[in-house]
Amino acid sequence: MPANLTCPTMKQTWPLFLAVVALFFIEICAELTTTGMFLDGLVYANLAANMAQGIGSFWQPCINPSYEPLFVGHPPLSFGLLALCYKAFGTHLWVTKAYSLGMILLTGLLLVRLWTRVGFRRQTAWLPLLLWVLVPLVSQFACDNMLEGPMGLFVLAAVLCMTHTPASWLRQAGWHLLAGVFLFLAFLTKGFTGLYPLCLPLIIWLADLLFAPQPQRRTLPQALGLTFVTLASTLLCLLLVGLLQPAAVDYLKAYLPLQIVGGIQEHTVGSRWFIVGKFFMAVAIVLGLTLLALLVAAVRGRRSGQRLVAKDRWRTSFIYLLLTLSGVLPMMISTKQSNFYILTVFPFFAVAMGALTSDPVEQWLSRRRRPFRTVSTIVALLLTIGAVTLNVANWGKPGRDVDLQHDVALICAQLQQGERIAITQPLQGEWGLFNYAYRAKQIEMHATNFADPADPRPQHLLANANDPLPDTLYHPIELPTKQLRLFER
After folding, report:
1. pTM score > 0.90 for this model?
2. pLDDT, tens digit, 9 for 90 and up, residues 223-263
3. FRET label pair with 93: which of 123, 137, 199, 306, CA 20 to 30 Å apart?
């Protein structure tokens, strides 16, 4: 930043922080105070609710006691944390939403800390926060109880530890030991996808090789040593848990083959490049704004002779861009992919792009301090009013799965808590229906073979509205449903 320009203070930039937070709450207004939830998060919430009520346990999570007694799709840490919240505050939808939102807000706080750790002033931390919340996927899944929420928090905490560089190599090793603990927690949240920061010491070594003067460079043996320390710490935590909790060994024996073999063999997308395409679609807005800011700065810099981006800024951007890609590209090993798998990389991408645009943005703000402060304060207050209004207006609305939630509410009002009911064959695989009904009253649904007289006939039967009645023993219950019909024996 030129010497003749003074840096904005926190008192001058607080409206920018408020505007970013308000913008984020506007983005999530269709999710935060509505009752709908993405299917995966709904399943995880039911797992945690069962765990809180003593149905299953931490190492034996249970989604449906009589149909699927053991869930081994993911490690159980996030379910356990949410179960603790349920025990403390009750098994309510709003506890689930608050848990999800809390993970995102804590991630934002750690992002601010990382921004200052890599050499930027706290007053400018609104910039990476803005670039982060401008990624549509962040707000899309912020309140849906996704495993990427707590996993991203642990991943970011690990990176914070690994970027702490005291003069003593032993102290650095100590911080990397702690980073290994956080990576172990990330693994316990969603498996191997949380371990990509292990390559950070090598990325920093490569960045030093390209951008840092000789005396300040980290050597390759040092980078390899720190990587080994972090990995050893993660493995040691895993070993200790296995020794102290035998049930953990049984769980991981069931989980690992499913995750590794099943993950590689399962096909949910047609191309391994799917995840890369989704990444660039998600960051298109941020990339566009970054290029625009650099273009404007380049035009102004040509007139004044100023350097566009300082070398240390290029180094920071290089490090966190490579770290971002290290969390995306390994996903290509499998054709089991979804766009939300890469949610944890976006804070690092925000730092990478913020490092390139921080100086030009600060210069622009310094030249327009007084009028910009007035305008930004007004905009921030308007955004805050809009955020509060929209979230209050959406309180209790379904948000998503409108007809399904409507029908489930009517149907569950006719059923007893924990009742087991029959469903017709076409409803098999309707996981949203199963989990909304289980969330409402722990209703268990099972397909009945009506051609077999020996197959038990529960008191109630559920079918699609247009399905033929499979058994004359049942007669319909008249309800104003839209998609489903409830029958009574």
Report:
1. yes
2. 999 999 999 999 999 999 999 999 999 999 999 887 777 77
3. 137
DSSP 8-state symbol, 83 = H
Instruction: Compute φ and ψ for 463, nearest 5 degrees.
Output: -145, 160
The verdict on 139 and 218 lying in the same domain is yes
Distance between start and end Cα atoms, the chain: 78
Shortest CA distance to 353 belongs to which of 117, 136, 132, 119? 132
CA distance 359 to 355: 8
- For residues 13, 14, 19, 25, the Cα torsion angle rounded to the nearest 10 degrees is 140
C-alpha dihedral sign at 295, 300, 303, 309 = negative
Q: Are 166 and 119 in contact (CB under 8 A)?
A: no
Q: Residue 288 class from Cβ within 10 Å (0-12 exposed, 13-18 middle, 19+ buried)?
A: exposed
My answer on whether 125 and 244 are in the same domain is yes
- DSSP codes, 188-246: HHHGGGG-GGGGHHHHHHHHHHHHS-GGGPPPHHHHHHHHHHHHHHHHHHHHHHHHH-H
Q: In b/e form, how buried is each residue of 381-401, taking b as 16+ CB within 10 angstroms?
A: eebbeebeebbeebeeeebbb
- Measured CA to CA, the distance from residue 487 to residue 485 in angstroms comes to 7
Long-range contacts of 481-484 (CB under 8 A, 24+ apart): 481/406, 481/407, 481/410, 481/411, 482/403, 482/406, 482/407, 483/403, 483/404, 483/407, 484/407, 484/411, 484/433
* Position 3 pLDDT exceeds 50: no
Name, of 2-6, 128-132, 292-296, the range with top average pLDDT: 128-132
244 contact partners, CB below 8 Å, separation of at least 6: none
d(C-alpha 50, C-alpha 86), whole Å = 10
Question: How far is 97 from 145, CA to CA, in rounded Å?
Answer: 7
Is the pLDDT confidence value at 118 over 50?
yes
In this structure, are 294 and 360 located in the same domain?
yes
Give phi and psi for 91, each to the nearest 5.
-85, 80
* Residue 464 CA from chain centroid, whole number: 34
Q: Residue 53 belongs to what domain range?
A: 38-367
In this structure, the answer to whether residues 277 and 156 fall within a common structural domain is yes
3-state secondary structure 233-266: HHHHHHHHHHHHCHHHHHHHHHHHHHHHHHHHHC
Note the pLDDT tens digit of each residue in 280-337. Answer: 999 999 999 999 999 988 887 666 556 778 889 999 999 999 999 999 999 988 888 8
Same domain, 242 and 308: yes
In the numeric block, which tokens belong to residue 304?
């004044």
CB atoms near residue 468 (< 10 Å): 7
**What's the total number of domains in the chain?**
2
What tokens does 192 get?
A: 């191997």
Domain end, chosen from 367, 393, 418, is at 367
